[in-house]
Amino acid sequence: MAAKKKAVLFLAACLLGLAAYLYHAFCQQDNQEELVLQGNVDVREVSLAFRQSDRILEMLAEEGDRVQKGQVLARLDTRELELQLQRLNAEIAAQQSTVDKLHNGTRPEEIRQAEGNLRQAQAAAEHAAGVYQRKRDIYTSIAGISQQELDNAYHDMEAKQATMSVAEAALQEAKAGPRQEDIAGAEAGLQALRNEQLRYIYLLSQYELQAPDDGVIRSRLLEAGDMASPSRPVFKLSLPGKKWVRAYVPETELGRVYEGQQARVYIDSLPGKAIDGQVGYISGTAEFTPKQVQTEELRTSLVYEVRVYVDDADNVLRLGMPATVRIVR
């Protein structure tokens, strides 16, 4: 009886040992099929700055605000630009009047005035010609006047005839109206002013800083009264698109990782809950002693940066949050 009992105990011990061995082997196989990495969450960010340099008039968003695409976040002082635009509008109005005048042609009143000037010039020329003729007759018949007087009468007649010719040309010009070249030049000048007006309107629109996409304000870097410029960001905006975990793979494990490989991401605030992802980027250059590493072994090894992109539908991942990545072979 005792021998039988010992045999049963021995068999039970063997079975327990076999179960322990199989469990250990299974765990080792499972560990070999997964590559465990430590990393941090990254998100896409945009640094928002004004295109123009001027003083900030209003700041309309705070850190943590959710903003929508096209929402105005800040404004610059536009008073100087608005005064310049008003002056340009006045120049456009003046040039428009000039173009309208050229298109309308010569007014009837101006033609009648030109005709009156011509009649006056003709009368003066005829009178001067008569005076010269009489003085010429006197000079040749009885020599009653000097040569100087005769010459003066002749020059006066020529001057009056020249004035009449000018009046005739002015009347013809008034009847013909403006030249097409003058009209085209005036219209080109008007178009140039209008183009300049559009440029000023565009510059005014750039005095408002708008969100390029939906997102969350992460940093408010300037305040109202500060001088803005293209090189000084005003806000940092986090975009709600793809998020990823930046991790580092040892050189000896690099062959186990490839683009498109499935992975699971875990965070401390949700223990046991996996977030699905996949490997989307593998660096082609090894780094030595990266700035952020999670284990002592990696600090003295050549490592490669890997980005595991995730679909964070519940929006639980935050920038810089530590995460554990399990890459399935």
Automatic annotation (TrEMBL):
Subcellular localization, as worded in the UniProt entry: Cell envelope
Record's keyword terms, sorted: Coiled coil, Signal
Listed SUPFAM superfamilies: HlyD-like secretion proteins
Domain of life: Bacteria
Ranges of residues in domain YknX-like beta-barrel: 245-327
Coiled coil: 78-105
Name under which the protein is recorded: HlyD family efflux transporter periplasmic adaptor subunit
Organism, scientific name: Anaerovibrio slackiae
Signal peptide: 1-25
PANTHER family per UniProt: EFFLUX SYSTEM COMPONENT YKNX-RELATED (PTHR32347), UPF0194 MEMBRANE PROTEIN YBHG (PTHR32347:SF29)
GO CC list: periplasmic space
Domain YbhG-like alpha-helical hairpin: 76-192
Principal location: other
